[in-house]
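user: can you give me the structure for this one chain? tokens are fine.
assistant: on it. calling the predictor now.
[tool input]
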Amino acid sequence: MATYAVSDLHGQYDIFEKLLETIHFSDDDFMYVLGDAIDRGPDGIKLLQMIKDAPNIDLLLGNHEFMMLNAVAPDGSVDDTPGKDAYLWLYSNGGEVTFEHYKELSPDERKALLAWLNSRVLTTLAFIGDKTFCLTHSYFKIALIDTEYKDCDYRVVWNIVWKTPFRADIFVPTDDYIENDWEFIIGHVPVQRVAGLDGKFEAFHEQNITLIDGGCSFRERAALDDNEYGVICIRLDDMRETILTFASL
């Protein structure tokens, strides 16, 4: 049995499917998807449904799922997007394609998907060997580890899914992480924006933080060559990285 983590798939179902094949993901393994499965790419809803139905894959909420939950109608209706984050989601963060596919679901499917998303947690701990891994989309609050989203305050969630040590505009210091005797696995900011394009495409490590956002969000924006971005998957048992670029598809 192996335990894996991947992040920021952004609707790219095809590369996630190839990743599962590449690592020979089996029923005995477990995969954490650290948020932002949706938006920008074409198959965010397909990814959500696949994760929801898989007994050995779990989703931690990212800022894009957070925006979706605060955009769509809580009852699953699709005549309007009444939530406070509707404009931010649809017009600033690539949520249009997700919403179009969400509208194609039946009313019961939409309600089931929203109920499942509301029951997801933001942060969890994984105990592998003698290590404790803190898995989260970006930031964390110890008191809310393994707390379902529906039981969390909006502003506190905003801090957890948006703030990061790797962007100046939403910055939190790495001191907040190193105070804990954990290994943090996070996403949210593509490694290309932190390490630059001159280095090897791989996870970015700083102190006890490992950043694994491989930049799937770039695919729809044609910002990089296909061999410069994709998915970075970490096997927590031994920290082995499996990296797939879009050039491999």
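assistant: here you go. Residues 3-248 form a domain with the Purple Acid Phosphatase; chain A, domain 2 fold (CATH 3.60.21.10). The chain has one domain: 3-248.
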